[in-house]
Amino acid sequence: MGTIHISKLDASKRELEHAIRLFFLSGDPVVIHLVISSSQQILRDLCKADKIPTFIDKAMELVKEEYKKEVKFMLSSAYNFFHHADRDPDGIKDFNPEMNEYALWECVDMYYSLTKEVTGIMQAYRFWFYTKNASILLKQEDKLTFTDISTKVDINNKAMYLDVATHLENKRTK
Questions:
Q1: In a 10 Å sphere around its CB, with 0-12 CB exposed, 13-18 middle and 19+ buried, how is residue 5 labelled?
Q2: Any idea what the Cα angle at residue 163 is, between residues 147 and 98, rounded to 5°?
Q3: What CA–CA distance (Å, rounded) separates 71 from 59?
Q4: Integer Cα distance of 91 and 114 in angstroms
Q5: 167 with 160: CB under 8 angstroms?
Q6: How far apart are CA 59 and CA 61, in angstroms?
Q7: Is residue 136 within 8 Å of residue 143, measured between CB atoms?
Q8: pLDDT, tens digit, 9 for 90 and up, residues 66-125
Q9: How far apart are CA 100 and CA 72, in angstroms?
Q10: Which are the contacts of 131, defined by CB distance < 8 A and separation ≥ 6?
Q11: Fewer CB within 10 Å: C terminus or N terminus of the chain?
């Protein structure tokens, strides 16, 4: 295999799509977190460069100045713990794998904001996420749609969403 010429955006897209595949296959949540965190950082930096506000930007507007550093630390502490050992080589971390679901959701949103593209696997993830979390949606019609869908699909059978992703990707690229 020769040299790969790759942009930051393409690297992030690959990381995001692979993290979603791992998620749907019930892969190791720590590995998923590391992969999605890498994508997340690139996407946040690219959004910042293009002056596109991210979820974190909007959330940080709600935080008092004296707490911003602490909030940012909490949001990145798992990634930093899994990625570095220089500060606490014997440390132990309590990690909630559900963080990955929200990080994936944020990354799909940022990727779309940057490119106006949503690939089949990203669409399948959104479908899964909104079906599982219909209660967080603002629009009543969206809540009803995804609540209704949740009675017809098994959101715990995440591997099924890989088939959905293939179908959506084929439909998207025709």
A1: exposed
A2: 55
A3: 10
A4: 37
A5: no
A6: 5
A7: no
A8: 988 887 777 777 777 787 767 778 888 788 899 999 999 999 999 999 999 999 999 999
A9: 16
A10: 146, 149, 150, 153, 155
A11: N
Task: Name the one residue in this structure whose structure tokens are 């088939």.
Answer: 163
Amino acid at 3: T
In the block, tokens 């779309």 appear at 112
This prediction's pTM = 0.86
Per-residue H/E/C for the chain: CCCCCCCHHHHHHHHHHHHHHHHHCCCCHHHHHHHHHHHHHHHHHHHHHCCCCCHHHHHHCCCCHHHHHHHHHHHHHHHHHHHCCCCCCCCCCCCCCCHHHHHHHHHHHHHHHHHCCCCHHHHHHHHHHHHHCHHHCCCHHHHHHHHHHHCCCCCCCCCHHHHHHHHHHHHHHC
